[in-house]
Amino acid sequence: MATDKGPQGSQWKTLDTDLNRISQVELATTYVARPLVGPGIALAFMVLAGVIAAVFFGQTPTSFVVVAAAVFGAYMAVNIGANDVANNMGPAVGANALTMGGAIVIAALCESAGALLAGGDVVSTISKGIIDPASIADTQVFIWAMMAALVSSALWVNLATWVGAPVSTTHSVVGGVMGAGIAAAGLTAVNWPSMGLIAASWVISPVLGGAVAAMFLAFIKARIIYQDDKIAAARRWVPVLVGVMAGVFASYLALKGLKRIIKIDLPTALLIGVLLGALAYAISAPLVRRASVGMENRNKSVKILFGLPLVLSAALLSFAHGANDVANAVGPLAAIVHATEFGGFEAKVSIPMWVMVIGAFGISFGLFLFGPKLIRMVGSQITKLNPMRAYCVALSAAITVIIASWLGLPVSSTHIAVGGVFGVGFYREWHMERRLRRPGETAGNVKRIAPEERRRRKLVRRSHFMTIVAAWVITVPAAATMSAIVFYVLNAVVN
């Protein structure tokens, strides 16, 4: 019996070893395959977009062009969701007012609702009027130029997301259109004054957004945080700030988010904002008073009162972004569809509903699959945010767009939002330095630290700051260069 047990025990030992190896291989396969799940789902969505285009366009000789454009349009929409939407949800997540999952759900719903319910009926085919339509007389050349713009802008936004830099989708499309236009018709085709205004927005957008955010943070610190009775100050000023937020967002949505339903001029939008702001103040004052009963007299209690307004502002920003920016992103796709269907092109074309559906759902997929990386970057890796600071960022985004519309300045919502985060961080650095230099401050109020340590403890991470600014500056030229190359390749393949 002893001689029989030896081989059997060896066999069981060998079997256990083999099973252990198999389980380790399965674990390794799962680990390796996990990063491929997102790209796989995104690829399936792109294929589905091509199928939808084929169903709507049928089996015409030129339908393959529309199918290819729909695939790349879906790719662009996924990249918008991965990159652009982080600017709206990042501050709320960084301030712990929203979980990552809650932010993704709210953003997906609001972005889709904004695109489908209030997205523009008409979009500029030559984005922002930077290319003269007369310079591209051949419809076929125009189609390849728009295809090149779509592919290059999507590739650039994808690259920026991989690097971890929030960039402007609109500027990427502008660069793509410009590069394809130059490749197709030369430098004279570009409207250089319009390009100059867009280049100016690289500076105007973040500086204006940062200044407005810093101004509101300074106001909150002076009127609430540094008061002896913080709760009494919060009861007085939080309803005012909620009323301001409601009024600003009402005006913002009236200007930017309701184009399909009704067109509203600036004075009317401001009047709507004043009325709704007063109503929000009347509603929030008793609610804030009731919520603040029994709260301790400290900053943590005040932060709680800003939580709900911050969540609402993030949702409203996402709705307005869906209504305003998705149309710009699918503009080249809409232009290709129109040119293929009617054999010509116009300065403005209508957006078919199936194109807007691709844009809306593509953003949701991109946000769900790839959005957390940029949301964390904007919300917590640039500077530390709390509900009050994040509230200032959200409010500055809406106010800056209204100011820019009044002044006729081209601005980027991405640059404004991220500029607001920078503005809050740099204001805190300046404020801390000022308090440290104030001779009357005691060690109990401000912690004394060595100058070398103070330089190391910057409240805004300079590496992220330089990466993001560099990405902003090179977005248009990089997208333009890629677009010109894609255009030449398409022309060489087709001809």
From TrEMBL:
Pfam families named among the record's database cross-references: PHO4 (PF01384)
Example GO biological process: phosphate ion transmembrane transport
Main location: membrane
Membrane topology: Multi-pass membrane protein
Keyword Magnesium appears in the UniProt entry: no
Localization terms from the record: Membrane
Keywords from the named record: Membrane, Phosphate transport, Transmembrane, Transmembrane helix, Transport
Transmembrane parts of this sequence: 36-57, 64-82, 141-161, 198-217, 237-255, 261-283, 304-323, 351-370, 390-407, 413-430, 465-490
InterPro entries: Phos_transporter (IPR001204)
GO cellular component, one term: membrane
Top-rank taxon: Bacteria
Flavoprotein listed as a keyword: no
One example GO MF annotation: phosphate transmembrane transporter activity
Family note: Belongs to the inorganic phosphate transporter (PiT) (TC 2.A.20) family.
Annotated protein name in UniProt: Phosphate transporter
